[in-house]
């Protein structure tokens, strides 16, 4: 057996160091928190919030594959999220019975349709650069909303489609109590989606750290230089778009399983889905993947709890009408918080922390030198 080369030894030491770092233990603590949410915070509002954060973190990470790692701005990414949701809704809702086979087929159909459509869009539109590509994808996303609304015989129109989840995912399913919590279909669905999103995230992480991911980052930094090195940038960009959109479609399928209802506004809307994803990427940091979790947590927590400040202000300060009026306009408070995040974390939370760590490391090396 051949002895390991110095490069192999370096990679092995880096992996061992990675599992002993504070960052690794922080990630494990966050994962443990999400695992324990149904037991620590059993209310439906909190469990639903945790689930929304997990799903949107995976969706934002899939969008970051395009924007942060490849430099492609697409306003149509949320469309694939909706396509995945509708594929599951068709097979266990409107056109099929709620069975495990139909559910698996729905996930496979979501991945296949997303892959074919993403590849077709990339082949037809990638020749158009920068903002023009983004505007074409926006037009395609708007067309998808119009089709889903107008083809009511197929999609249910604005009324949408209600899903009937099978077996252990059904709300009527119950395994009994464990640590004072009913292990029902909702809890089983929570853990299924949590670990599915975790698996998708690990696949995306491996994708970005692979040689293919390194080429995508080279294309992001300088397309002309990547072409001069002999890489077919068009092919690599198509792979990036297809991979990210397939993940978005699968997350959309998981979303439909959790919500139990799909309509154009909740799953295809550019303003409802795509705008939130863009804000989450900016808050968390582009080209980080982990930033998606920070961005999703920030946005979903503020959207969930800022409206409640109005009632809190009325209870604590019943005579303060001016304060009540401000709290009624909670979007203003959200805007202020978003501006503060952008000011203090110009490269997103994760990006700015990494930059600060790199600066400290370089200063330490300069001092030792």
Task: Describe the secondary-structure layout.
Blueprint: H1 6-18, H2 22-40, H3 44-70, H4 77-94, H5 100-125, H6 130-150, H7 152-155, E1 161-162, E2 174-178, E3 181-184, H8 185-209, H9 211-221, H10 223-228, H11 233-259, E4 261-262, H12 264-267, H13 270-284, H14 291-305, H15 309-316, H16 321-328, H17 330-344, H18 349-368
Antiparallel strand pairs: 1-4, 2-3
Using brief descriptors, characterize the structure shown.
single chain, 369 residues, mainly alpha, ABC transporter involved in vitamin B12 uptake, BtuC, two-stranded antiparallel ribbon, 76% helix, globular
Write a brief caption for the model.
This protein is mostly helical.
Question: Overview of this structure, please?
Answer:
It is a single chain. The protein has about 375 residues and is mainly alpha-helical. It has a single domain, classed as ABC transporter involved in vitamin B12 uptake, BtuC (Orthogonal Bundle), CATH 1.10.3470. It is about 75% helix and about 5% strand. It has 18 helices and four strands. The strands form two sheets. It has a two-stranded antiparallel sheet. A hairpin with a 2-residue loop joins strand 2 and strand 3. Helix 3 runs antiparallel to helix 11, helix 4 packs antiparallel against helix 5 and helix 13 crosses helix 14. The longest helix is centred in the first third of the chain and has 27 residues. It starts with 5 loop residues before the first helix and ends with a helix. The relative contact order is 0.14.
């Amino acid at each position: 057996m051949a002895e390991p080369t110095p490069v192999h030894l370096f990679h092995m030491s880096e992996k061992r160091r990675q599992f002993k770092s504070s960052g690794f233990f922080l990630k494990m603590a966050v994962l443990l928190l999400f695992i324990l949410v149904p037991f620590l915070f059993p209310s439906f509002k909190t469990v639903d919030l945790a689930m929304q954060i997990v799903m949107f973190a995976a969706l934002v990470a899939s969008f970051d594959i395009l924007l942060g790692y490849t430099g492609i701005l697409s306003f149509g990414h949320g469309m694939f999220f909706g396509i995945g949701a509708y594929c599951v809704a068709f097979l266990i809702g409107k056109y099929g019975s709620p069975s495990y086979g139909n559910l698996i087929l729905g996930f496979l159909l979501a991945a296949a349709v997303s892959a074919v459509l993403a590849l077709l869009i990339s082949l037809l539109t990638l020749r158009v650069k920068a903002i023009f590509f983004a505007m074409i994808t926006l037009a395609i996303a708007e067309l998808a909303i119009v089709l889903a609304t107008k083809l009511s015989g197929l999609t249910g129109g604005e009324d949408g489609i209600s899903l009937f989840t099978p077996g252990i995912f059904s709300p009527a399913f119950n395994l009994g109590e464990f640590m004072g919590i009913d292990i029902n279909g909702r809890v089983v669905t929570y853990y299924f989606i949590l670990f599915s999103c975790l698996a998708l995230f690990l696949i995306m992480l491996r994708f970005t750290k692979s040689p293919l991911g390194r080429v995508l980052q080279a294309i992001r930094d300088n397309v002309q230089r990547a072409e001069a090195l002999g890489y077919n940038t068009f092919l690599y960009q198509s792979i990036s778009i297809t991979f990210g959109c397939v993940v978005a479609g699968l997350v959309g399928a998981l979303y439909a399983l959790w919500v139990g209802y799909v309509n154009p506004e909740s799953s295809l809307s550019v303003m409802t889905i795509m705008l939130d994803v863009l804000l989450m990427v900016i808050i968390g940091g582009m080209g980080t993947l982990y930033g998606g979790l920070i961005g999703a947590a920030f946005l979903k927590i503020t959207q969930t709890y800022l409206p409640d400040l109005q009632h809190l202000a009325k209870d604590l300060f019943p005579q303060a009408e001016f304060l009540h009026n401000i709290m009624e306009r909670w979007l203003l408070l959200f805007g202020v918080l978003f501006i503060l995040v952008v000011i203090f974390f110009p490269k997103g939370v994760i990006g700015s922390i990494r930059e600060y760590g790199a600066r400290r490391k370089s200063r330490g090396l300069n001092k030792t030198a």
